Amino acid sequence: MDQRITSEPLTTAPSTAQPIRIDAGSSATPSTSAASGPVWSQDSAGSGSDRPGASKGVVFGANDVSVHYGSAPALVNVTLDIREREITAFIGPSGCGKSTFLRCFNRTNDLIPGAKVSGRIDYHAQNLYAKDVDAVEVRRRIGMVFQKPNPFPKSIYDNLTFGPKVNRMKVDFDEVVETSLRRAALWDEVKGKLKQNAYSLSGGQQQRLCIARALTVDPEVILMDEPCSALDPIATAHIEDLMRELEHDYTIVIVTHNMQQAARVSDRTAFFTAEIESEDDDRRFGRLVEIGDTSKIFSNPTDKRTEDYISGRFG
Amino acid sequence: MSTVATPSAVGSVPPEGSGKHILAAPRPRYGEKVVLGLLWLCAAISVVTTVGIIVVLFTEAVALFGIPGVSIVEFFTDTAWRPFTDPGSDNFRIGVLPLLNSTLLVTAIALAIAIPLGLATAIYLSEYARPRVRRTVKPFLELLAGVPTVVLGYFALTFMTPLLRSLFGIERVPIFNAMSAGIVVGILVVPTIASISEDSMSAVPRALREGAYGLGSARRHVALKIVFPAALSGIVASIILAFGRAVGETLIVSLAAGNLPPAELPATNPFQQVQTMTAYITQAVGGESARGSVTFQSIFAVGALLFVLTFLVNLIALRIVRRFREEY
Q1: Are residues B249 and B162 both part of a single domain?
Q2: Nearest CB to A166: which of B210, B217, B326?
Q3: Which residue, of B82, B114, B149, is where some domain finishes?
Q4: Best residue in B132, B209, B215, B325 to probe A by mutation, most A CBs within 10 Å?
């Protein structure tokens, strides 16, 4: 379990699901994903093809994804790609479904009764929602950091060994604890008190502990759902530095309400909007407006709605 | 209340004696006082009742040891319980240990049944069952808690005992035995454990579960390693409550476990007739006994011991919880 196993299928049985996407071959054809045009993008202005990193592999390909809670739509017809070792930010007003969409990538929505995901999400060209995919293995590979720090009410040490233990990873626990804490820039602050309860840490430290915890099971992707919304600016700056550091080894998707944060840390930004489903009860559902390089989305967006949101005229 | 107003503010307040303060209540608020009084009274009644019970229990219990021929040392150390004869006679023995042993035996059997069954039910309902199943099963469970114990007593005597006798042999299992009563008392307290444990497990924040699932945990890991320790205080509370009910359960044991204190201590064979503390109290209350007699006072002594027993278990459990609980 020491080595990253990014392109293996998620199941032990050979997958019968044939990838539909022509651009999804991860390492075999690195050039096609860029050359075949910006299929991940709704702005056909060719946002991705001219940047140096455009040849990076595609980790997730979402194709016409919709999510319903019961009969109410939360998010409709989203098509985009998440690229390897980049930070992709999802921004948009409340109720636009960006968190819901994020949770589709590690099948956390499965845990909510009544939630239904339609469309197709590929992970390394394999259907993430295929019958023989094990959701537990999905979540091991695709970690998550939540809005509010949620350390377990155990010692710092036990928080970090929990994942390796339940996954029966044959590793040296002391080493895992130290490595993950160092990666999360928390080691120096807690190395003397690993046996203390995680709740004794400050909010920012708790969130870095949660990031460290996510790293212990050797994921490929880390999903972050507004990871700084409960933190003060100094703690936020810590986490942002950390994200840029982790970007070299991990694919990161972050949902944020903070547009400056998206502009500061992300390589690409997807803007979602909330559409009103019915005027009577103010029910909303989300839709992707556009996705592109962060610099372009913030300086020269294609869609008027993005521009309005970014310049603060709306939302 | 020494300096209410600064000199500058004095001017705006009417001089004293000129009538009401400008901020005085426009009319007296009697209603508030009445409500406060009533609520206080209700709270006081339960406190006074509890204190009263304890005082009566212990003064009457102490009176037992004032009777000539009855010694408190014998009460706690003697291994035979024959309190119905004259204290002077040779046959008279007043050691409570056989009764205590019987109670602990039945309670142990009951909890050995109820704890695994109750906790498994709670984990299933809280972590595995779909919401619709939970909504259906829980009321049934709580219905079981409402079955009158006299019904369960006859259930033990007319169903459980014959079942045990056919399973283990008529020679081994007498009609009145601790096993049958213990199993049925266990069934009685399953809902207590399951319902309260399920409540406290459901109360564990979803964020903790999602954190564990996000690391690739299977359901059983989340249930046993995250939810269970976090809900421990509620779980232990449910077990204490169940213990209290099992120790204090009277009708089932009177009907199914018999009325014969075990002769040899410690009595560990579940297939024997026993007499629990509560069964003895029932037996003694049913007979004619004058105030001041050994039988009459012994009722209170046994009752006081029962009280102390549950109280001690409560204390110990509290300590256990403080030590092992993972507070969220």
Answers
A1: yes
A2: B217
A3: B82
A4: B215
Which residues of chain B register pLDDT less than 70? 1-18
Task: List CB contacts (< 8 A) between A143 and chain B.
Answer: 214-215
Residue B88 falls inside a structural domain: no
Domain CATH number, residue B212: 1.10.3720.10
Helix (H, G, I), strand (E, B) or coil at A183: helix
* Contact call for A146 and B218, based on CB within 8 A: no
Contact criterion met (CB < 8 Å) for A108 and B207: no
Q: Examine the domain organization and report whether B266 and B156 are in the same domain.
A: yes
Query: Does the beta-carbon distance from A153 to B211 stay under 8 Å?
Result: no
Gap between the Cα atoms of B304 and B308, Å rounded: 6
The first and second tokens of residue A108, run together, are: 């956390």
- The answer to whether A76 faces chain B, any CB pair under 8 Å, is no
Structural domain for B141, as ranges = 99-324
CA distance A99 to A225: 6
Query: Whats the size of chain A, residue-wise?
Result: 315
DSSP state of B125: I
- pTM above the 0.90 mark? no
User: Does residue B144 sit in the same domain as residue B58?
Assistant: no
Q: Taking a contact as any Cβ pair under 8 Å apart, which residues of chain A between 203 and 262 contact chain B?
A: 210, 213-214, 216-217
B12 in any annotated domain: no
Residue of B nearest to A140 (CA): B216
* CB spacing of B326 vs A152 below 8 angstroms: yes
- Cβ neighbours of residue A104 closer than 8 Å, sequence gap 6 or more: A62, A65, A67, A117, A121
- Residues A96-146 pLDDT 10s: 889 999 999 999 888 888 889 999 999 998 999 998 999 899 999 999 999
Residue B51, judged by CB atoms within 10 A of its CB (0-12, 13-18, 19+), counts as exposed
Q: What is the pLDDT of residues B48-68, one digit of tens each?
A: 999 999 999 999 999 988 888
Query: Would B116 be classed as within a structural domain?
Result: yes
For residues A279, A284, A290, A291, the Cα torsion angle rounded to the nearest 10 degrees is 170
- The answer to whether the Cβ–Cβ distance between B214 and A216 falls below 8 Å is no
Structural domain count, chain B: 2
CB contacts, 8 Å: A137 with chain B: 216
CA Rg value for chain A:
19
Question: Three-state SS string across A228-282, please?
Answer: CCCCCHHHHHHHHHHHHHHCCCCEEEEECCCHHHHHHHCCEEEEEEEEEEECCCC
| Residue B13 domain-assigned (yes or no) | no
